[in-house]
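Q: Please design a sequence for this.
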């Protein structure tokens, strides 16, 4: 860090229902460029990944875009199919991430955020200078998630089982943002993180 023309890469992650997307939007509102892995997947499902997915999973493309429900039916619960899908998507998402960081480096950004849901689980933290974990007490997380349409307690438990426990993420974080105390408190924490990083730039 502190290299001429370098951008500090801040990994942003957090378990389901912790407020990661809202926090990413707060970084963006403060003028920090944010790369969203989820948004990249959405773009790929309507663009570059379409022919590759149709070839691997025939019938999952509708009107020129990947139908997420049909794709889900083809891969959920099938480890081999999931591995095939990841082998298509992950390299494309990484390409987009690399292009994003290159653009921000050229623009002279001091800090850039990589918003990656399974950052630690996929080893993405190795590509970051620092990591911020978005967190909240379990009861708040649970009530947020169960308020989502189509969510059940069993589904929530399955999702949690696939993610690194919040306590482990917090232990590995360079910064924590607690979203349980309201938007203003979270925004204050975001500004503190940015100020702390810029001091190193």
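A: Design:
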């Amino acid at each position: 860090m502190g290299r001429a023309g370098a951008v500090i890469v801040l990994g942003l992650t957090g378990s389901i229902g912790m407020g990661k997307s809202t926090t990413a939007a707060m970084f963006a509102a403060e003028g920090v460029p944010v790369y969203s892995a989820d948004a990249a997947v959405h773009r790929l499902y309507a663009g570059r990944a379409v022919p590759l997915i149709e070839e691997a999973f025939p019938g999952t493309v509708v009107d020129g875009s990947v139908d997420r429900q049909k794709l889900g039916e083809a891969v959920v619960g099938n480890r081999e199919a999931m591995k095939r899908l990841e082998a298509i998507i992950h390299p494309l998402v990484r390409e987009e991430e690399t292009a994003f960081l290159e653009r921000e480096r050229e623009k002279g950004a001091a800090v850039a955020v990589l918003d990656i849901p399974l950052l630690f689980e996929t080893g993405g933290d190795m590509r970051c200078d620092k990591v911020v974990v978005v967190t909240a007490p379990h009861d708040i997380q649970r009530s947020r998630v169960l308020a989502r349409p189509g969510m059940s307690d069993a589904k929530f438990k399955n999702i949690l089982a696939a993610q690194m426990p919040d306590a482990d993420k917090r232990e590995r974080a360079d910064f924590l943002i607690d979203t349980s105390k309201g938007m203003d408190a979270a925004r204050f924490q975001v500004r503190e993180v940015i100020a702390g990083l810029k001091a190193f730039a």
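Q: Thanks. Anything notable?
A: The chain has a mean pLDDT of 93. The chain has two domains: 1-33+110-201, 39-108.
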